[in-house]
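User: I'm curious whether this sequence folds into something compact or stays loose and floppy. Could you predict its structure so I can see for myself?
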Amino acid sequence: MSVLEMKVPSPGESISEVEIATWLVADGDYVEKDQAIAEVDSDKATLELPAEASGTITLKAEEGDAVAVGAVVCLIDTSAEKPAGFESKAAEAAPVEVEAAPAKEEKAAPKETAKPDPTPAKADSHATGHASPAAAKIMSENGVKANQISGTGKDGRITKQDVLALLAGGFSGADAVGWGGTRDKSLQKMSMLRRKVAERLVAVKNETAMLTTFNEVDMKPIMDIRNKYKKIFGETHDVGLGFMSFFTKAVTEALNKFPAVNAMIDGKEMIMHNYADIGIAVSSPKGLMVPIVRNAEQMSLAEIEREIKRLAIRARDGEITPDEMTGGTFTITNGGVFGSMMSTPIINPPQSAILGMHNIVERPVVVDGQIVVRPIMYLALSYDHRIIDGKESVSFLVAVKEMLENPETMLFGGKDPVEVLLGL
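Assistant: Here's the prediction. I'll summarize afterward.
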């Protein structure tokens, strides 16, 4: 008998322990090499643990256990033979087009895309309602019941991808299930990721001099460009043209003019960055995650869109790594996708500032002495007043506003093209 000890690998620098979130296999199961056998939570992300060899598995830790990096979590008997009729457990994830959700814009015709039906699947005779461990965990977290989803696995088994597809289609557990009319309560353990987020948010409020400044931006110029060029942009670059690329580009240009907004405090010193690594907050089944777009200041709009899409897909599928979410210099978050009109976003430490986008609403505004209706978005910049003065924060936000309202200036470092032509 040949036994392999599987130890917890290091998911990233400074991480000393992880938590066993979910075992995807049972004690005594036969597993294949590289098959996902568990999901583990670190204080930065949830990662899948693949089997290092094929054989029969013996679990050495329970779900919810905190396990040190390098500790043995299971044994694999590599001398065990594959059982007759064994089928590979490799996930067959159907490709799903993911786009970082934009803020609300003008009403558009609904896309003709297939979405999962969130209504109860009572008439679906082939659905057994039996969920895999990973699927069951996500269903529990989002209020999804077994009779509300049709499984695509063997014999109608509900897979993790089935649940993710249902949630991506706009399913709302609370709306679909409704109140039960009882006085029941239940306890749910906070994941290591959620506990770490809670600690960091409290630390930010206690350890920084955080202030927020607001402004508004007329989104009509950006929306006109998108309406005119989004079709040919998609055909040329094979990616959609969203709002986030415009905001990211405007932010990088403004950071170049106001470098303190892109800096951070280290003891008694300021770390100034000659690059812009922009964190883009995206929603995932595990909660809000902030992957980093590296060197965004050097990217075109198409490159920014592709990178945001790639990171959003990885976050949605639980494949994002800690390295892809660390090291940012500035963050953009979009509460508008959830209908937020205005908020004060919390700084993502050790960064010194964060930009909050909100939903787009048609409002009466005065243009050239006339009252007109324009699509307006409120912007919020939260910043650490210890390192960023009020003048810099307000000027930074005004620069972002001006570039969004005059998109052509993004091509000329925030200057008017006529001024560039005249050498002014």
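Summary: Residues 3-77 form a domain with the OB fold (Dihydrolipoamide Acetyltransferase, E2P) fold (CATH 2.40.50.100). Residues 91-127 have pLDDT under 50 and may be disordered.
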